[in-house]
Automatic annotation (TrEMBL):
It holds the Pfam family DUF4328. It comes from Streptomyces lucensis JCM 4490. Keywords: Membrane, Transmembrane, Transmembrane helix. This is DUF4328 domain-containing protein. The chain crosses the membrane at residues 29-54, 74-97, 158-175, 195-215. Residues 66-216 form the DUF4328 domain. The keyword Manganese does not apply. It comes from the Bacteria.
Length: 234
């Protein structure tokens, strides 16, 4: 028997029209690069704290160690502020980009989306469901943006989300351990875990940039294919 023909895409809901995600995609990728830069700075600060705490745990208490400890504390605090600022700026632009690609994806195929559009923003801030709602939304957009008749592989999205969740869990454990460190040895262990957490955050930011760039290109190519009812971005 011949294979059944795939169901045609459902029409876009009212209020959904195509707009180019290219500008927001580039801005998001640049800001994710800034996140990587601040995380690298944080890794340097973590390493300094780990080195000072390790020397203190070994009994090397002198004036030079005190100077290095002050410098490490200053850099650690500065890195935390830089990371927070970069994260907030990136989150704002990223959510604008995600909203844009979600609306475009509804124009491509409204049947691909299992969640209401409001969850594009709310899914990140609602406790518990923020562990999987954003991934599902990105996957729906990814599939709707794939070339006609094709189903895009999920590996880039799954890799990004897995590393992102891992960085959140390890980061929370590292901050807790750091706050409760009462001896140089405990501080050394906490800073080592913090270094691992910042490394995971770097990997998550790189993978997020891969997803952003690839989905932006998919959407541009789909419009330029000439098979849409709306021939160009509005």
């Amino acid at each position: 028997m011949p294979a059944p023909m795939p169901a045609p895409p459902q029409p876009a809901p009212s209020g959904a029209w195509l707009r180019s995600p290219a500008g927001l995609g580039r801005a998001t990728a640049v800001l994710l690069g800034l996140v990587v830069a601040t995380d690298l700075f944080a890794c340097f600060a973590d390493f300094l704290v780990m080195s000072v705490a390790g020397d203190a745990a070994d009994g090397a208490l002198d004036a030079d160690l005190a100077h290095r400890a002050d410098r490490a504390d200053t850099l650690y605090a500065t890195a935390g502020v830089a990371q927070g600022a970069a994260l907030v700026a990136t989150a704002v632009v990223y959510l604008c980009w995600l909203w844009r690609v979600r609306v475009n994806a509804e124009v491509f195929d409204a049947s691909r989306h299992s969640m209401k559009r409001g969850w594009v923003i709310g899914g990140w801030f609602c406790p518990v469901v923020n562990l999987w709602f954003p991934r599902r939304i990105v996957l729906d957009c990814w599939e709707a943006s794939a070339p006609w008749g094709a189903r895009g592989g999920h590996a880039p999205v799954n890799a990004w989300w897995s590393v992102w969740i891992g960085s959140l869990l390890v980061g929370r454990a590292a901050y807790t351990q750091y706050d409760h460190a009462g001896t140089p040895a405990e501080l050394r262990d906490a800073s080592r875990l913090m270094l691992f957490s910042d490394g995971l955050d770097i990997a998550a930011a790189v993978l997020a940039a891969v997803v952003v760039v690839h989905m932006t290109r998919l959407q541009n190519r789909k419009v330029l294919s000439g098979e849409l009812l709306t021939p160009a971005f509005g």
